[in-house]
Write a structure and sequence with these properties.
Structural class: alpha/beta
Shape: globular
Radius of gyration: 17 Å
CATH superfamily: Ribokinase
Strand content: 15-25%
CATH class: Alpha Beta
Largest sheet: 6 strands, mixed
Number of domains: 1
Oligomer: single chain
Number of strands: 9
Strand order of the largest sheet: 3-2-1-4-5-6
Distance between the termini: 15 Å
Helix content: 25-40%
Length: 269
């Protein structure tokens, strides 16, 4: 039977991030994608012009509809918008024993638009992050969640360990926003710490990279791969996607998940 993955996230009308990016990424890895939409956004490559959160009870109804019928082999969260939605998602996660779960703590769009209410951060830390197999913040999100400065690799390592202390089982802290010729991500599972290094690709077309990376990890977990292997494949995938970024629109175009297929002629087997 085909592997299944569920994304619980916001909709990006421009197609570069959110559930659109997640579903495209699932498909690239030959995983059947399902979704529960948490918010509608009006956005394109230049920014976000509107956000309409979905009522929490309807987010829960979507999750129940998918899991009671189709089921899933792995799940991820993206934009959750409000504390009430986080509470609904956490309750569904517990009730359905939803695992493995990857939490991408989306807080701010690439354009700078806020995608998570400030008061919802505590709910994310208290209710959802302890339920996740992996949390994938960028440096800005890690700083917001921990209250620590995150401006170099040493501080990344400290913030990742702080998130472990706050309840995360494992953390992949993404360093793409730091000004360095290499991109360094820090992985910490509370026992071992490793740094994942890739050469920086000079392109403005990186919209949706966080969504695509967490979706790639989720897809590979759904296919039965280990967390370490899923992260390594996800890193190779997102590097290809960024390298083939699409110059669409008048702003920051999206990374291109189809590059993974185009380079290999088929999805990762």
């Amino acid at each position: 039977m085909i592997a299944r993955a569920l994304t619980i996230a916001g909709s990006d009308s421009g197609g570069g991030a959110g559930i659109q990016a997640d579903l495209k990424t699932f498909t690239v890895f030959r995983v059947f994608g399902t979704s529960a939409v948490t918010a509608l956004t009006a956005q394109n490559t230049t920014g976000v012009t509107g956000i309409h959160p979905v009522p929490p009870e309807f987010v829960r109804r979507q999750i129940d509809a998918v899991l009671s019928d189709i089921g899933t082999d792995a799940a991820k969260t993206g934009m959750l918008a409000t504390a009430e939605i986080i509470e609904a998602v956490a309750a569904a996660t517990r009730d359905w024993r939803l695992e493995p779960l990857v939490v991408d703590p989306v807080m701010v769009a690439q354009s700078g638009a806020p995608l998570l209410a400030t008061e919802a951060r505590e709910a994310l830390l208290r209710m959802l992050i302890p339920l996740a197999l992996l949390v994938t913040p960028n440096t800005h999100e890690a700083a917001a969640l921990t209250g620590l400065p995150v401006s170099n690799i040493a501080e990344m390592r400290a913030a990742a360990r702080a998130l472990i202390a706050l309840g995360a089982r494992a953390v992949l802290l993404k360093g793409g926003h730091l000004p360095d010729e290499n991109v360094v991500d820090v992985f910490d599972d509370g026992r071992n710490v490793r740094e994942l290094r890739t050469a920086r690709i000079d392109t403005p077309h990186t919209h949706g990279t966080g969504c695509q990376l967490s979706a790639a990890i989720t897809a590979n977990l759904a296919r039965g791969r280990s967390l370490d292997e899923s992260i390594d494949i996800g890193k190779r995938f997102i590097t290809e996607s960024i390298r083939a970024g699409l110059a669409l629109g008048h702003g920051n175009g999206p990374a291109n998940p189809l590059a993974w297929l185009e380079r290999r002629g088929q999805a990762e087997s």
